[in-house]
Amino acid sequence: MQTSDIWVFLAMVLYFVAMLSVGFFYSRRSNSSASQYFAGGRGVGPWLTALSAEASDMSGWLLMGLPGLAYFTGVADAGWTAAGLAIGTYLNWKIVAKRLRRYSVAAGNAITIPDYFSKRFGDTKNILSTIAAVIIIVFFAVYVGSCFVTVGKLFDTLFGFDYHLMMVLGAIVVFLYTVIGGYLSVVVTDFIQGMLMFFALAVVCSGTVISAGGIDHVAAFLSDIPGYISANHTATPTLDPATGAQLAQGGQPLFGAPTDFDLITIVSLMAWGLGYFGMPQVLVRFLSVRDAEEIKQSRIIATVWVVISLGCAIAIGLFGRAMLPVQFGTQAAAESVFIVLSQMLLPSFICGVVVSGIFAASMSSSSSYMIIAGSAVAENIFRGILKRNASDRQVMWVARITIFVVFVFGCVIAADQNSSIFQVVSYAWAGLGASFGPLMLFSLYWRRTNKYGAIAGMLVGAVTVFVWNLALKPLGGIFGIYELLPAFIVSAIAIVVVSLATKEPGKEITDVFDHYMDDDTNVGELLEEHAVKA
Predict the structure, then answer these.
(1) Could you state, in order of their start, the residue ranges of all structural domains in the chain?
(2) Contact between 515 and 521 (Cβ < 8 Å)
(3) Domain 3-518 fold
(4) CA 233 to centroid of chain Cα atoms
(5) pLDDT value at position 39?
(6) Residue of 141, 167, 187, 275 with fewest CB within 10 Å of its CB?
């Protein structure tokens, strides 16, 4: 290891130690009750809420997957996806956050998303929460795997360390501070990591613009690539049939004729924004915020963070193509462009701090996924069905065991180091968005929704994602659209049709809905009311 690598490594080690210290610091408070362990006792402020939500949401995809996509195919794919995510972020905070915070209290003081669905629809047998918990386990295992892929690629690219060894070691660090510290450690570390991700993107983006000779110089270079900087075309790299890597000639990458972007493709990419309505790692932040009235402040913070971060990530990919035109031959390889540029542009220790942003992104996301998976199984299956009188201590132990299982499955999924982070994340995003997104909106806005419609919506959404991705998408044409969009629509239709075809919700459920809709309702009074009932 060279001297410069030692400084990079030292900065990253110090970061790891700091994150583990946070976990230990919050362990006593988080382990005082299940409510504290899973939702921070509903006492999280607006800044922590906003940045922890966005850091956990974006993961290593923001610093590796999105720049890699922009590097490989240009503006259109990455740009329309980012536009959908930015709009989805704002709308989620605008139309879901405050209502969910209030309704989760009104409907039995729910502290997890599966728990909210069961209590919202009066599901005393916990069928809804069990289905939701299973869906969370399946897709979060995939999500966690994508985060571990990021960690392995990071150390492999930086130091040439063995991918599999570093992937497992990084995963162990995340597992330890998650299982020890619970939700509060996750939220606080996510806040720190959100700040670091923002700093890393801004520094590398600025440095790349300067080193590449300025925007005008880069624009002139990129405009020579067919369709690369077009909003309605995407560049088509010319690939070697034998290796699948992009061909080059005279130090310049080769591209074929650009692919047209029609309206269906644009809508398909922007449909990424629909996923936010069903993302448990974001929705649980709405449940835990200290006061529903603070959500407006969180919405502003989160939206600004997302817009600037997405813009910087895409710019890094585009300017990276100008600086390193032939270094990355595949999209999976191009996902290391942020790391390579950091090494080129920054002093060693600062590089270590900046690339820790990648590990930060992976840590923040995977920790959130694991704690939510643990809470789903422990609260909604173990205490909800198997042992209704379970103590908080028993529930938290079941959660820790679940977290370990998800950790193991995530490592198995991440074993393939050639996996594209973007593709892995897109699949899990579609699954969660289609399963929970339509139901979340209907639960908050349509009084007539019943538990049968809710069950149908979740199952149909999840199944459609699998069927569309595996059977229909390979057919191409209109079936080539992102599976989230058709699955979201089909799930919404299933909720409406089944709810109308079955009996109306009971008066007790509709009364709670009407109560929650009253803006004069005091959340503190609702909590006290449910405490008395309990």
Answers:
(1) 3-518
(2) yes
(3) Sodium/glucose cotransporter (1.20.1730)
(4) 27
(5) 46
(6) 141
Quick check: 168 pLDDT over 50? yes
Report how far residue 413's alpha carbon sits from residue 418's, in angstroms, rounded to the nearest whole number: 11
Least confident range from 14-28, 89-103, 302-316: namely: 14-28
Q: In sequence order, what are the residues at sequence separation of 6 or more whose Cβ sits closer than 8 angstroms to the Cβ of residue 405?
A: none
Chain centre to alpha carbon of residue 488: 17
pLDDT digits (tens, 9 = 90+) for 418-429: 766 667 778 888
Q: Residues 415, 153: contact at Cβ < 8 Å? A: no
Q: Is 412 exposed, middle or buried (0-12, 13-18, 19+ CB in 10 A)?
A: exposed
pLDDT computed for residue 92 by the predictor: 96
Token representation of residue 399:
């959660």
What is the C-alpha separation between 453 and 420, in angstroms, rounded? 35
Higher pLDDT, residue 414 or 23: 414
pLDDT tens for each residue of 244-294: 899 998 888 999 999 888 888 898 889 999 999 998 888 888 887 878 788
Three-state SS string across 421-446, please? HHHHHHHHHHHHHHHHHHHHHHHHHC
Please identify which residue in the block is written with the tokens 């605008």: 94
Amino acid identity of 426? S
- Confidence tier at 505 by pLDDT (50, 70, 90): very high
Spatial CA neighbour of 443 closest among 114, 91, 56 = 114
pTM for the model = 0.82
**8-state DSSP, 449:** -
Q: Mean per-residue pLDDT for 455-467?
A: 96
Say which residues have a Cβ less than 8 Å from residue 408's Cβ, sequence separation at least 6. none
Rounded CA-CA distance 32/36 in Å is: 7
| CA distances (Å), origin 219, targets 214, 322, 335, 462 | 9, 9, 21, 42
Q: How far is CA 78 from CA 204, 396, 443, 477, 499, in A?
A: 18, 40, 32, 20, 38
Give me 341's structure tokens.
């540029």
Closest to 121 (Cα-Cα) out of 476, 446, 465, 518: 446
